[in-house]
């Protein structure tokens, strides 16, 4: 029976493509004609499925078997309607034609993606403790599998009214990591977009599927990045997309995040596919496809609340296009890109509504960022509208051409300043966070952001990116780029500048690189490829391909060598089983009390459904102050830090928690690993 349930729950995965193809058909126009496009169909289908799964999780109706059966039904209905078996022959013919035209590049890209997926999937980080965000996403996924909803019903679990719970609700005790005390039904801190997919992969594969979801998304991101990079590079210089892919797929932050249970990979997926769809929409002069592209970009806001900066990027790109007079020269392409910006605004607004309704404390904690980004977006969108209508506000072609070289020089000077001067000039910025107040007052090292990026991608790539940024600005002003390329490059510059200026994450590396994954790293790599394409435009096609292959091998080998001590590291291996062993010793029909380890209490409560409570800290030394007056009292504690020596106390089990972890440092990249080991005792007190 379990095998049948696993097979049934698998149905959601093959249903993504037909769901996306059907959605593209409904959109109509060019989107209808592209409904069989693999990348567009997968991206659109994953967006629609994400929203449906989030709605089910919010409603408490998240049942993987039923969802999978619905997926199988969608697949069967779509195959019958589209007569999918008749399209196998044309699809194979298209693949053979594509292999003849781009066989070498496609083979090299496939080899890089396969190697990257192996590194991602074989060495996952199995973290379940909520000391960092990845443990909270994993706990949320386990909670969905067990309860069928995102809300934590305290009464159903059996801990409503406990003094420890009441103390948290009244603000007299610290909150459990990643949980907001919102009445009788507590709320997880982050969006459910990533946990619902982790849960759907864990339903057929078991809990280990949670820790491998990002490996799958990481590989898809490699494909999306390669397709987008080829789209942005000049037609005769697309061989340079291969070394760009090697850097993207094998750089340390990409490898680490794709092994982790974080939300950045899913956000990056929607951004990359949305930008690709935007370029297609502009090329085909399709407003409907442009609107869909904007919706895909905006879906990143459902995954991560800080992705609201993508709406600002869309507004800034629209303003740049209007100010340079691109709208008047190619009005249909400009209209498609305007629809892209509109779609991004609308979906971003819906995403903020979701956070307001479902994760309100999180939205309030980041209200400063959200409000600032929203105000800047409105101002840029208004300015773009005015510039598009008033010719006097647009930069003429002759004036833009005169500014091309000075603007390029200014970009190069800014790059030099950010890379070599600003890191050494005080005063240095300090962290001020309402969400993580324990970091307040520390340096966030934003002054060294660009040089830190170089530590991940290598100095040659970052130096080439500086040159590429200058050349891209010059090409935009000189009107040597198509509207789609100019819009996408202008879009990428905004989140790159924002996240380099304000990383918004803890300053220790490799954690400090998280925010750079969706936009900064891809933008830097694309700009570097743009520069190399410009420098190598006089090479023959064969020479360019050979040099690109050599560059891919050299850069890929260098990046892997950088990670030699962590490349085969399974961080936190066995953590799920170790916490599960503690949970197995505790009763499921009465409360258990965890002393001095809120992360463990959160993992037991959310991950395994144990009615675990952390008593108020002032009561830890006296079990009589938190244990019930009658019956058994179960306590999880450290035997030496919080010893329990009272009448009726019996040690049930001593269970270890061993963690193999990588070294972190404010100086990237830190090397080496270390092991944490602790002993936790389960004690039963008879009263």
Write structural notes for this entry.
β2 and β3 (185-188) form a beta hairpin. The model has no long low-confidence stretch (mean pLDDT 90). The protein is of the alpha/beta class and 687 residues long. Helices cover 61% and strands 7% of the residues. It is built from 28 helices and eight strands. The strands form two sheets. The protein has a five-stranded mixed sheet, with helices on one face. A three-stranded antiparallel sheet has the order 1-3-2. This is Glycosyltransferase RgtA/B/C/D-like domain-containing protein. The chain crosses the membrane at residues 6-27, 39-56, 62-80, 105-123, 213-233, 266-283, 289-322, 334-357, 369-388, 400-420, 453-473, 485-504, 516-536, 543-561. It comes from Lysobacter yananisis. Keywords: Membrane, Transmembrane, Transmembrane helix.
| Mean of residue pLDDT values | 90
Question: What would the principal axes of the Cα set say about the shape?
Answer: globular
Helix content: 55-70%
Name the strands of the widest sheet in spatial order.
5-4-6-8-7
Name the beta content range: 5-15%
- Which structural class matches the secondary elements? alpha/beta
Structure annotation, total helices: 28
* Strand segment count: 8
Sheet having the most strands: 5 strands, mixed
Low-confidence stretches: none
Oligomer: single chain
Radius of gyration: 26 Å
Give the N-terminus to C-terminus distance in angstroms.
43 Å
